[in-house]
Design brief:
about 650 residues; mainly alpha; 21 helices; about 70% helix; membrane; MATE_euk; MATE_fam; transmembrane helix
């Protein structure tokens, strides 16, 4: 007892002279491990033994460049390394037990919490220092930020926490590989303006092809069925509009994954990406039950809007046949975002390059072929079959080609935190639904001007929708990069990705504007042979072309807001501008001032200008510290949920 008291008194006298950085005790050049901590028989992190496999975490140094690298083995982490870059020998007694269970979560979560507590206690003013230093603390030369070694260490440990499950071993003393299986290391990725522009192009091009191919399904139905008769053409248009409104709800729900999945992937929480996907997919399927019932009885609701009974009957029939394919399309959208978070953008392109031509072929055969053709309902049958083919093929791509590294199996964690998911999903639904419905209302307005105006409006709105997909693809690419960097806690790189995204939106909009003006007559002639309709379309095309610049800013800025987790701001702006400013102005210019289509597009163009500029301002002037705090809070909620699982 006397010896113990003497040691305790000696340590107390030494303590004021020593400085701790949360990992161990030492100065700026050297870290000393806390080898005086007595062995614990309660925590598996403090077990001692003669073999390396029985050693555990006693302290953590800052030099963990090997952790997460394919060539390193956890069994040798505890061995002495060469001198660090600051000079002097770095002593580390850190090693991982080689006898790892399938679920090491409690041990690693305990480690993260302990070291986060130690770090916070030693550096209580880090956050205030960051705020006072402002932009001067960021190093924009190469956009490398290696100052926060603790954050990077925690990120790498979290990334490897999920990898341990796949690389667990059963023999004592055997080495464990922590290969990331192709996962990007956002902690050390060198990011420059040129590299980020290249990434934006690399991500955007397959997305543009994907979204354009997706638009083919509704267009093919209209073209194939339209030759049967005018009632069938009107019915398929009405059914397509109704289904698009419903799909927009679930696409809005899926936009929550634009925030959650890339942030988890950037933070190294690979299995978290899969859990977010599971949670959103389950919630979508649960919500689809009431929507599916409404869809089935759509004829009851359509008769209050459309007075023609035969038109209502045909549209209702089309929707009923198409209903079984809706869940497949919803799951396809969720799975596509799961892959996009991992930087896998070409998967949807490959799938649609196969399914889109098959849809054309099946639509023709099922509608017109004299042997197997069934007429009008052949079009929705073809759509349903293709939706399931799309989903099954994308699952096959994920399992057999790329994307399974973030799939840790079905987890009970996906049954929790639905409320938190809805906080991101509901604003996303509002953003998409508000915009979708506003264009449908404009088409309804145009119908009161006459048949020629309605035909011209249909032509220009279709072209505008197709062009919008180009900007929307740029937005998704920017959103993914922003969220990845937020997850990796590299605010400087997230800012750069946001700036390049907004600048890319303006450039894309200008290019679209020029092309539409140059090709205005050929584009108009694609939709009608009536010279009056063609001329009316050509006359309004310059205005539509200019509007695309603002619409491009709207598409990209809205996506960037989702990457930042600020969907709520975008929903407020869209709701206010479209329905408080845009639609009233459309009625005033179009009817009261008798500008007709020009009045409609002047009003919507002014609204898109306000939305694009406002959302871009919020993206570029975001409170990044608040964004980081919210992302950290979601991580903590997931960790708490994991400890309960």
């Amino acid at each position: 007892m006397a010896v113990a008291n003497l040691i305790s008194q000696t340590l107390q006298e030494l303590q004021p002279r020593l400085r701790t950085n949360g990992f161990g005790i030492g100065n700026a050049h050297r870290k000393l491990s806390l080898t005086f901590i007595p062995p614990s028989t309660k925590s598996p992190l403090f077990q001692y033994g003669s073999s390396p496999g029985q050693r555990s975490f006693l302290s953590l140094g800052t030099d963990y460049e090997g952790l997460g690298n394919d060539r390193d083995r956890l069994g040798s982490i505890g061995e002495e390394d060469e001198d660090d870059e600051l000079g002097g020998e770095l002593s580390r007694t850190v090693s991982l037990p080689s006898q790892i269970s399938e679920r090491p979560d409690p041990e690693l979560n305990w480690l993260l919490e302990e070291h986060h507590r130690h770090y916070s206690s030693v550096h209580p003013s880090d956050e205030s220092e960051e705020e006072s230093e402002g932009e001067d603390t960021q190093d924009y030369h190469g956009y490398q930020d290696d100052s926060d070694s603790f954050t990077q260490l925690m990120s790498r440990i979290r990334r490897n926490q999920h990898q341990f499950r796949k690389n667990s071993v059963t023999s004592v003393g055997s080495a464990v590989s922590v290969s990331q299986q192709g996962a990007e290391d956002f902690d050390h990725e060198k990011v420059t303006i040129r590299s980020e522009i290249n990434k934006l192009l690399q991500y955007s091009i397959p997305l543009i092809i994907t979204f354009l191919l997706e638009q083919i399904f509704s267009v093919v139905s209209v073209l194939v069925v339209g030759h049967i008769g005018k009632n069938e053409l009107a019915a398929v248009s009405l059914a397509t509009m109704t289904s698009n409104i419903v799909f927009a709800v679930f696409e809005g729900l899926a936009t929550a994954l634009d925030t959650l999945c890339p942030q988890a992937y950037g933070a190294g929480d690979l299995y978290g990406v899969g859990i977010h996907f599971q949670r959103c997919a389950l919630m979508s399927m649960a919500l689809f039950v009431p929507f599916g019932i409404i869809w089935w009885f759509a004829g009851f609701f359509l008769k209050f809007v459309v007075p023609e009974p035969e038109l209502v009957r045909l549209a209702s029939l089309f929707l009923k046949v198409m209903l079984p394919g809706a869940p497949a399309y919803i799951l396809f959208e969720n799975l596509k975002r799961y892959l996009q978070a991992q930087g896998i953008f070409e998967a949807g392109t490959y799938v649609l390059l196969i399914c889109a031509p098959l849809n054309v072929l099946m639509s023709y055969l099922l509608v017109w072929n004299k042997y197997i053709g069934v007429g009008f309902i052949g079009a929705p049958i073809a759509i349903t079959i293709n939706f399931w083919m799309m989903f099954i093929m994308l699952v096959g791509y994920t399992v057999f080609i790329d994307g399974d590294k973030c799939w840790g199996g079905f987890s009970k964690k996906s049954l929790y935190h639905w409320k938190d998911l809805m906080h991101l999903a509901i604003p996303g639904v509002i953003m998409l639904e508000v915009e979708s419905l506003s264009y449908e209302i404009m088409t309804l307005f145009a119908s009161y001007f006459g048949t020629e105006y309605l035909a011209a409006q249909s032509a220009v709105s279709t072209i505008a929708s197709l062009v919008y997909m180009i900007s929307f693809s740029v937005g998704i690419a920017s959103s993914t990069r922003i969220a990845n960097f937020i997850g990796a806690r590299r605010i400087d790189c997230a800012k750069l990705a946001a700036k390049i995204g907004i600048y890319g939106a303006v450039i894309t909009g200008i290019v679209d504007c020029i092309l539409m003006i140059v090709l205005k007559r050929p584009l108009a002639q694609m939709f009608s042979k009536d010279e009056g309709v063609v001329q009316m379309t050509v006359d309004i095309f310059p205005l539509i072309a200019v509007v695309q610049v603002f619409d491009s800013m709207n598409a990209v800025a809205g996506s960037c807001l989702r990457g930042q987790g600020m969907q709520r701001i975008g929903s407020y702006i869209n709701l206010f501008v479209y329905y408080v400013i845009g639609m009233p102005l459309a009625w005033y210019f179009g009817y009261y001032l008798d500008f007709k289509l020009v009045g409609l597009w002047l009003s919507i163009g002014f609204g898109l200008f306000l939305i694009g500029v406002s959302e871009s301002w919020f993206v570029l002037n975001a409170d990044w510290q608040k964004i980081m705090n919210e992302a950290d809070q979601r991580k903590e909620d997931e960790l708490e949920n994991g400890s309960m699982d």
